[in-house]
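A brief tutorial aside. Many learners find it easier to grasp structure tokens once they have seen a single protein encoded end to end. The record that follows does exactly this for Transport permease YfiN. Read the sequence first, then the structure, and try to relate runs of similar tokens to stretches of the chain.
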Amino acid sequence: MKKAKAIAVFEIKRIFKKPRSYILMFGMPLLFTFIFGGIFSGGTDDKPNIAVIDRDQSTLSQSLVKELENKKIMNMRIESAEKARSEFEDQKITGYIRIDEGFEEQMLRKEVPKVVFVHSPSFNGATMIEQVINDSMVKLRIGAEAASVYQDMTGGDWKGVQKEIAKGLSEASEGIKNVTVTKSKELASMNNMTAFSAGFTIMFVMIAMLISTGVFLEARQTGVWYRMMSAPVSRKEILLGYLGAFFLIGWIQFGVLMLISTFVFDVYWGNVLGNFVLVSSLLLCIIGLGLFIAGFVQTSEQQTAFGNLIIVSTCMLAGVYWPVEVMPDFMQKMAMFVPQYWGLEGFAELSGRGGTVVDVLLPSAVLLVFTAIFLIVGMSRIRFDRG
């Protein structure tokens, strides 16, 4: 075991002697997390910013605005038409809602007034906001009709009744308690920054491991492996030394990135023991994948070229660059056959759903199955002689 330990220490020192290793292992994943997380997170508040143009300035138009505010699904503010259009063109707001003149008159005539919602084609939440507007208008029309009937029967002011109805509906909505069921009090959902941090950490650990496992092919190309086999050290000790080095290098990279992202990006990783089990299983799988690829190529250059292609494409499929849910159904099923998917599922359990080690047993077990397949096939194909 001393010889295996010496090989592991030597390999770790060799990797960290190269300045570019620090850029690839730590700089790139943090940069990608910052860029993608910043783009898609939109800050700590993920609600769209919507301006409201109220041209009618009537009791019913103001009631509609109040009803939309009570939904609390968007950040709303009243703006002039000119300012709203300018901010939308400059992409300072997601869109704007325009209530035209005559809104109240049409409502009282039991007509359906038109409310315009302007947004960019890329805004995914448009359908939800349109539905909320329609639902609010139906509720408002019912209240307006009730107030109108009251006025006809009693001769009282319908506007006062309308305000009371709107107030009653608002209080009824506030009486509903929204409870998110999670396994932890710390976090209710896996936010974008956490998801990107986990995804890009996995991707760049895979790339770093790909380079590390290429040492087998380098040893074969240069004849180093043959000389090592001639030395008084067994093949088992050599393999254990290298595999131990790869595992420790992976944990150093993962650990440092998790620590930095916690303080810099406020990423919550969840249960410590759960993360230890999941990351260890994931690293073994990544090492196995590197050796699997090494078994089908002849040189370390070929391994880097084909390996990077495989890693980037499978990361896309697994949901590193975008959520799996936005992909077609057949691609979502395909994603379950790549290791990164199960790694992200495990991190979602821990950081998003507040799970414990029990909750990552399934993802970890699947990763270990991948590991076994990769190692068996890869080690059976790698040739360590000089030929």
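Self-check: The mean pLDDT is 78. If you spotted this yourself, you are ready for the next section.
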